[in-house]
Structure formats: C-alpha cells, structure tokens
Amino acid sequence: MWRTAALYLGLVLSHSVGEGSVVKVLCHPGERVTLPCTYHYEDHTNISQLSVQWRSPNNELLCHYIKHKAFQNCTAGYAITYRPGSITLSILHVNMEDFGSHVCSVSKRHEFTDFSVEVVKMSENKRNVAEIEYQKYQKYQKYQKYQKYQKYQKYQCARKLDSAALIYLI
User: Is the C-alpha dihedral spanning 151, 154, 160, 164 positive or negative?
Assistant: First the structure.
C-alpha cells in the first residue's frame, strides 16, 4: 500500500508543479516505481512527430520513444508507457544508482521541454506520511463520487417531476 502512496505523492506533485520544477517520488531500493512525465503538446490535437527521452541521474539514456516511427527502446530493467500527454518511466527494480534526478525530455519538431523527476530513498518516517496522504486521497475520491451520485439523484428526481408535470398537463 505504501508503494502506491509513494507513487500517489509523486503524481500529485507532478500536477502541482510547472515546467522546470522537480517532482519527487519516494521509494525503497528493490521496489518497482513509476515516474510521471506529462506534457501539453497533445492537449488539443494529435501530434505525429513526437520524441521522448528518459535519462538517468548519470545522464545515461534509459529509454527513447519516437512516436511517428513507432520506435521504443529501453535499457534492461526500465520500461515506458505512452498515452497522449503522458509518458511514464517504470523502474522495475530500483538500484542505488537510480536515486537522484531523472530527466524526461519531450520534443515536438522545434519545441523542447525537460521535466525533472527525483527518485528519493524513503525513510520509515516518510513511509508513514505517504500512507496518511494516500488515505486522505482515498477519502477525497469517495467524497467526490458521493457528490456526483447526489447530483445524479437530483437530476433523476427533476426529470421524474418534469415528466409527471407534463403528463398532468396533458
């Protein structure tokens, strides 16, 4: 559960920071971890010529993705997942060399954007904080679902009243 919480913390931070900011993902050696990289190029339109590179803290190329050539190549122990607007790097087994800042470079023809994601070794204290934050997130999601359900119920009730009033008028 705390692995998911650490990923959640990283994802939350990735949505609250802009370009040039650092996202931190907490984990322990030996764990599998996913590093987020979101970009805006495909927000409103499909981009055919897109290239993404993930680099290690030692500036070694870990993964390279070229969309228009359907090319994807990763060093052993790493994998990428592409969705329009996001390309995540999965480290299958975190080593000591993986701790530090990873750079996700996204390029679209003549536009280049770099995002930094720092993999941080999690101490036992941070593990508890991550669990608490994840529990808060789960409660918030349940609350949002409950609000949507209530809106839906009000809508259904209003529809029934409208149809009943229409039948009464006829």
Answer: negative
Contact indicator for 25, 1 with CB cutoff of 8 Å:
no
Region for residue 85 given its phi and psi (left: phi exceeds 0; alpha: psi -120 to 50; beta: otherwise): left
- Contact by Cβ (8 Å): 74, 80: yes
What is the mean predicted confidence (pLDDT) over 17-29? 70
- 33-35 sheet: strands from edge to edge: 33-35, 86-91, 78-83
C-alpha distance across the termini of the chain, in Å: 58
Task: Over range 30-51, report the average pLDDT.
Answer: 81
Specify the pLDDT at position 108.
82
Residues 38/86, Cβ–Cβ less than 8 Å: yes
Is 98's pLDDT higher than 50?
yes
Residue 56 pLDDT = 94
The 8-class DSSP code of residue 163 comes to: H
How far is CA 36 from each of CA 7, 88, 139, 163, rounded to the nearest angstrom?
Answer: 9, 5, 23, 48
- Cα 37 to Cα 162: distance, rounded to the nearest angstrom: 47
pTM: 0.60
